[in-house]
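During the reporting period the student researcher (J.K.) took over the structure-prediction task from the postdoctoral fellow and processed the backlog of single-chain submissions. One of the processed entries is reproduced below for the supervisory committee.
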Amino acid sequence: MNENTLSVWDSPGPDGGPSLAQLDESIAELSANIDAATYRLLSLIAEFDRREGWAAGGFLSCAHFLNVRIGLGIVAAREKVRVARALEELPQISEAMSRGEVSYSKVRALTRIASPENEAELLAMAKTGPASHLEKVVREYRKVGKADVDKARRQQEGRYLQTHYDESGMLVIQGRLPPEVGAVVLEALESAERALRDSAESSPANCDSAESSPPNRADGPRPGQLRADALGIVAERALSASGTAERGEPYQVMIHVDAEVLAHPDADGECCLEHGPALSGDTARRLSCDAPVITMIQGQDGSPLAVGRKSRRVSTALYRALRARDQTCTFPGCTRRRHLKVHHIEHWAEGGKTDLENLTLACGYHHYLVHEGGFTVEGRAPDGLVYRTPSGYEVRGCCAPPELPEDPVAALIGRNADEGLEIGPRTGEIDWWGEPLNAEWAVHALLAHDRHDTET
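J.K. obtained the following structure tokens:
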């Protein structure tokens, strides 16, 4: 800097405020303090997710919980959860971030390719270049390195597909497909996944997850569960004879259920899929809310009393009115817009009417919760609905922000100091003098590192 520039840099600001040099150091110091605090936040998120604290409130995932609880955008929330999980296996990167030495932006990039074996080398790169350099190295490594490392594992020796129901009544699918067939299947599954995620990606506050019923309430929409839901969508599309018809009924599934079981799910009696395993009474009630299912209601002697499913299905006109009114899943905080299920607030088996006041829309997951999951929904639609957890806690769509100290910045810096962290303007400084990035060399070094680990 020349003399005039130095003078401006060190001179007090307007009205005697801080100089540019002081602002520079304050920005760097506060940023490092925020990075250290962000690590603590990620640690809390990781523990909360590991203990599945979000499931108790009916949230679809930890990201959905963060979206509603702290107002974090759903995409950003997913990234926070991903990074939090990854850091649990990366002690060196975790330690550096906990001291404010690396930013969240750099850690987010590192965790896409880091492992306990290569994290030291990646951390060295993070401390000798800006985040943009690190992002480029990660992109190049993922393109070149992953294709090389995973090549052998993608080879297929044979093809087969087997299905059977296991002892719990779940359909088990096992198989191996040639690469070209597998690519078609994956494309279909990914298309269905995009359809499931569509409203979540396009809405400011949303749930990001599965449509069909999970095995139990505590299980959230893990990637494997979302893929299973996508397979169901692919099957529905294949069976559909009406294309994009809004309320078509192109296929049917038959359920045999005793009348007493349908009215009182805990009662003894038959309840099963035709040519398939037994179902719970609650599952039969969920499926018979409004779905391409025919329920064969039977008397005590097994004789058919009624095939009453179609007479209670919501008409196209009523469904359109319902969609125009609710637009999304009505579970608090969930704004999924596609693949919604029609739910009778008071089940028709108990005398509930098939009219707008007794109907509401729910995504597959929350429809499951209010039947098999122990959750309840009461009141009249659209404005009087109250969802409750199995323990009776009312689920709310937003939470009041916590009270903050009078000076949050001073409180943050003070807490970091109490944690024994010595954070100053140079804590997050990198050893870089503006030289250009040699991405080819960096990726080559990581690949050589990978090959060495494989050989040893």
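The committee noted the following: The beta strands are 160-165, 171-176, 253-258, 271-273, 293-298, 304-307, 341-344, 359-362, 376-378, 386-388.
J.K. will present the remaining backlog at the next meeting.
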